[in-house]
Amino acid sequence: MVPKIETTRHAIAIAIEQLDKWFGTFHVLRGVDLTVKRGEKIVICGPSGSGKSTLIRCINRLEAFERGRIIVDGIELTDDVKRVDEIRREVGMVFQQFNLFPHLTVLENCTLAPIWVRQMPRREAEEVARHYLERVRIPEQAGKYPGQLSGGQQQRVAIARALCMNPRIMLFDEPTSALDPEMVKEVLDTMVQLALDGMTMVVVSHEMGFAREVADRVVFMDVGQIVEAAPPREFFDAPRHDRAKAFLAQVLR
Ligand SMILES: Nc1ncnc2c1ncn2[C@@H]1O[C@H](COP(=O)(O)OP(=O)(O)OP(=O)(O)O)[C@@H](O)[C@H]1O
Ligand SMILES: [Mg+2]
């Protein structure tokens, strides 16, 4: 049985309150507040080094934080390993570098975690994997190795692999920025489809066309803070903050 994206559990998918994080003495996140509703799509943008990756990595505890709270689907993130596991079950993540296992086929990349982490029977895991490979439109690549695929295809495998764990929330960290221009669209199309299916998504991206089309809100970060958060039309047509204006002038040029 292929699981459906569940959309009804908690009205608030992610609540981040007064989050502070340091790398040693460097204060990387400064009092970040962000609430993501179930089904909402957030695009985070901002200059390099502003803390975008660090922020989304905190959500599934790839980074620890020193102050504040993060609550995912009603579960508060603490040092408790069980809680961290529970939250990671809810959250799928796709990175700039696809991080596929090169020695495993596409299908094996997709079934590895369901079989070994979820104890899903192999037959069922393969059925689920083929379903998602179909959805990202590369079912015919199932038997190939990542090295035999284009960058865009590899990134779509990475998305399918994350979906195989049936997450309620998907985090993306610049999923298209390592791709050749002609492959960006096929990955963005996949993400648009996922958005239309109702997935809750937090996407770090400078693809402003995607943000305009899909985002409920665009969040602009600078030096570890959320400086502005607004619906795309408002953000693009009338950015309020000088730093957001300067940033937009640069990326839209
Ligand atoms: N593990 C680390 N140790 C120390 N400093 C770090 C570490 N990871 C990131 N930083 C620093 O924290 C700041 C924020 O990094 P982060 O990767 O979150 O930025 P970003 O907004 O994602 O940037 P980019 O757009 O370049 O990906 C940067 O100044 C970076 O050098
Ligand atoms: Mg980053």
UniProtKB/TrEMBL annotation:
PROSITE patterns: ABC_TRANSPORTER_1 (PS00211), ABC_TRANSPORTER_2 (PS50893). Coiled coil: none annotated. CDD domains: ABC_HisP_GlnQ. It holds the Pfam family ABC_tran. Residues 14-248 form the ABC transporter domain. The keyword Nucleotide-binding applies. It comes from the Bacteria. The gene is artM_1. This is ABC-type polar amino acid transport system. Keywords: ATP-binding, Nucleotide-binding, Transport. It comes from Blastochloris viridis. Signal peptide: none annotated. GO terms for molecular function: ABC-type amino acid transporter activity; ATP binding; ATP hydrolysis activity. The lineage of its organism: Bacteria, Pseudomonadati, Pseudomonadota, Alphaproteobacteria, Hyphomicrobiales. Belongs to the ABC transporter superfamily.
